[in-house]
Specification:
Radius of gyration: 24 Å
Structural class: mainly alpha
Oligomer: single chain
Distance between the termini: 47 Å
Number of strands: 2
Strand content: under 5%
Shape: globular
Number of helices: 19
Length: 486
């Protein structure tokens, strides 16, 4: 597509021919505000000298063959699709812990507390790795970090089939899978959203967050069927293969930054150069934590998100299947209910992203936590050998609220902490997973001590009520506490 570039300026200025150069120059870099619709862009080679950064004189549209070709779909949406599929493929590991408790207890005679401890290590590392992974993505790029993380998940899951002792479960499933999953957790979604989108960030965050639920929907029925008919080992191998299958997809199709393909982020009015790699990823993650920890909003967001993790990943995802089985419900039926939660999680999370673009995030959080707490208080009365309408209502209701908290939480991190928001959210996510880890462990201990999970459901409901109040305490006007720059 090499040809002359004609620049039209106000009347009577001659058309100028400029020597061709092969490098592509985005229209948004040449003309402020080119392409008024968010996301409009031109990804084509232009015969023009390299454009220097800085202001460009206002003029008419750049023409190439008479008209500017504008693809209908911005490349950012394709990147979002790749990220969505990647999170779905990695979601297999998150579907398995609740299905492993009874089989491992029966085969190895390990207590539920012991198995819950391995799950808690997994959940804790999932969160604690996230802020460092976000910094590593700034240093080495999204593609390399995510591909390595998927490989580690596959190795850890595959090694569990040869384990013979509880410490090996902690090492393979707790440490390896925890580190791998944490490296491409929700911080991955936040990084993709921050780099590729200016407009529609809430919606994209909701869609990428829903990918985990979509993966749960895809894998839970399959894995529960495998566990029921062939044992837990084929299920673990399935997780390993699912993670490996996504690696070439990531390596070939994912791009780190819009500038890599000569584009501005979706919704931006000017070209954004790719920042230089940031050295000292671990040091930066810790430095951002210390700065953020001097602010009140950070602790409120971390506290509410810890309760979010406790009441979802730590409680329902880990203990709902064994709790239902305690009441006589088949494992496949209980796993099917979790999969239905995944269906409505997709709807609820995308809707939450849409709401976050339009309503005050802290009020959304308060509503979400209050409704979740109320639903958990009713759950012990709904567990039964068969699935009945009140239980279906709970599943639908809880699914809509499952991770609806993520888009407003990310929005508040972005509002308060600016360019460091992805790393700050990584630390907030760490609190989410620490809360999940504590309840995953204590839930198993409570079952061993009391013979039921009832006390855990009631305690989690009370915690959600506290989270609703904490969300309302977050200040209306962010001061970015020390600006995180100084």
């Amino acid at each position: 597509m090499l040809g002359d570039v004609t620049q039209t300026t106000p009347p009577a200025q001659p058309v100028q021919d400029v020597p061709p150069v092969p490098d592509a120059v985005p229209v948004s870099d040449a003309i402020p505000g080119a392409g008024a619709a968010p996301g409009a862009e031109v990804d084509a080679a232009v015969d023009a000298p390299p454009v220097e950064e800085g202001p460009v004189a206002a003029g008419g549209p750049v023409e190439q063959g008479g008209a500017v070709p504008r693809p209908r779909v911005h490349r950012a949406w394709f990147v979002a699709v790749v990220a969505f599929v990647t999170i779905i493929g990695a979601a297999a590991f998150a579907s398995l812990p609740g299905l492993l408790i009874e089989p491992l207890h029966d085969e190895f005679d390990w207590s539920r507390g012991t198995i819950g401890f391995a799950v808690s290590v997994n959940l804790a590392l999932y969160g604690l790795t996230a802020p460092f992974a976000a910094a590593l993505m700034d240093r080495f790029g999204i593609r390399k970090v995510v591909a390595a993380a998927l490989t580690v998940i596959a190795v850890g899951s595959a090694l569990t089939v040869v384990m013979t002792a509880a410490w090996q479960l902690v090492l393979f499933w707790g440490v390896l899978v925890g580190l791998g999953s944490g490296s491409m957790a929700l911080a991955f979604a936040a990084t993709v959203t921050n780099r590729w989108f200016v407009a529609r960030r809430g919606l994209v965050t909701g869609i990428l967050t829903a990918a985990g639920a979509s993966g749960q929907l895809v894998f839970l029925p399959l894995l529960s069927w495998l566990v029921e008919h062939d044992g837990w080992r084929p299920a673990a191998i399935t997780v390993a293969l699912a993670a490996l299958a996504v690696v070439p997809f990531v390596w070939l199709l994912l791009r780190d930054h819009p500038a890599d393909v000569g584009l501005a982020p979706y919704g931006a009015t000017s070209f954004v150069p790719k920042p230089a790699p940031i050295q000292g990823a671990a040091r930066r993650a810790v430095t951002v934590l210390f700065k953020a920890a001097r602010t009140g909003p950070f602790w409120l967001l971390a506290g509410t998100f810890a309760i979010c993790g406790a009441s979802t990943n730590g409680l329902v995802k880990t203990h709902f299947v064994p709790a239902s089985h305690d009441h006589g419900m088949p494992v496949t039926a209980a796993a099917g209910l979790l999969a239905v939660i995944g269906v409505f999680d997709v709807i609820g999370t995308i809707a939450s992203g849409w709401f976050t673009d339009r309503f005050e995030a802290r009020r959304l959080l308060a509503v979400y936590y209050a409704l979740r707490g109320i639903s958990l208080l009713f759950l012990p009365m709904l567990l039964a050998p068969t699935v009945h309408p009140p239980m279906i209502f709970f599943i639908v209701f809880y699914g809509l609220d499952w991770v609806a908290t993520v888009p407003p939480t990310i929005a508040l991190c972005r509002e308060y902490f600016g360019e460091d928001s992805a790393i700050v959210f990584g630390w907030v996510l760490a609190s989410h997973q620490v809360g999940a880890a504590v309840v995953a462990f204590l839930g198993g201990v409570a079952r061993d001590l009391f013979g039921s999970y009832d006390v855990v459901w009631y305690a989690s409901g009370a915690l959600c009520a506290a989270a609703a109040l904490m969300a309302l305490v977050i200040r209306r006007t962010p001061q970015k506490a020390a600006n995180l720059a100084g």
